[in-house]
Write a structure and sequence with these properties.
- This protein has about 230 residues and is an alpha+beta fold.
- The strands form two sheets. Strands 3, 4, 5, 6 and 7 form a five-stranded antiparallel sheet that branches. A two-stranded antiparallel sheet has the order 1-2.
- The protein is flat, with a radius of gyration of 26 Å.
């Protein structure tokens, strides 16, 4: 009986926990098929998509990647992999650098310790309050100050308080314990705050700037057209 030989990727970052290490290829589907140029020529080649399931040695979560293969035009070093799952989970656009760094730091412990993740997201919430010059002695009072100034709408205030309460559970053993089941909730609460406070204004400013550029181009073209017609 032939002994099964495990296959591994090169060192790469896990999209679930952030660990960087070779991953075991635990599953593979090949859509590579034979193609030929008959009757124009005798040329034939193998080409198609290949999909692989990768197992992270740290968090034991599965990732999915794909690549295209054509044996007539490619060598193994030419392969370009695309990560299909998990999808992009970077910081939302428009977030200040220090808060973005805090967000990435929290993501590194996400699949290692749910309590630590909750505590670090609570720290991120405090950084948001500091950045927006919130007043108050406690995180709760600072959030209330932001709400009173219109930084947070009523519904988002509830979101921020939900994140704060989960942070407290993660920080104090007497209040209970966060589990991996709460990770999606923590993710959603955090992104809701960051996207409302930073991303929405950032994207709105980008849209306004793009609109101004379009108007300037239109006005310039209109002016050039009017000058040409006057010369005629």
């Amino acid at each position: 009986m032939t002994e099964y030989q495990k296959k591994f990727t090169i060192r790469q970052r896990c999209g679930h926990c952030g660990n960087c290490a070779p991953m075991e290829i635990v599953g593979e589907y090949s859509g590579v098929k034979r193609h030929d140029d008959y009757p124009l020529s005798d040329m034939s080649w193998q080409a198609g998509m290949v999909y692989q399931l990768l197992l992270c040695p740290a968090c034991e979560c599965i990732s999915l990647r794909s690549y295209f293969w054509n044996d007539a035009a490619m060598e193994p070093p030419d392969i370009s992999y695309e990560l299909l799952y998990p999808g992009p989970s970077g910081c939302p656009p428009g977030v200040p650098q220090d808060i973005a760094c805090a967000y990435e730091s929290a993501k590194k412990v996400r699949r290692i310790d749910a309590n630590a993740y909750g505590v670090l997201l609570g720290r991120l919430l405090e950084l948001v309050c500091h950045d927006r010059d919130a007043q108050g002695e406690s995180l709760n009072s600072k959030l209330e100050d932001l709400a009173s100034r219109g930084e947070f709408p009523g519904k988002l205030m509830k979101v921020a308080n939900g994140l704060r309460n989960l942070r407290n559970i993660g920080a104090h053993a007497s209040l209970g314990e966060l589990t991996f089941a709460e990770l999606p909730i923590l993710d959603s609460l955090c992104r809701a705050v960051l996207e409302y406070v930073y991303s929405a204004p950032f994207l709105a400013n980008q849209a306004e700037e793009s609109l101004r550029k379009v108007r300037r181009t239109f006005e310039k073209n209109s002016s050039s057209t009017d000058e040409s017609e006057s010369e005629i």
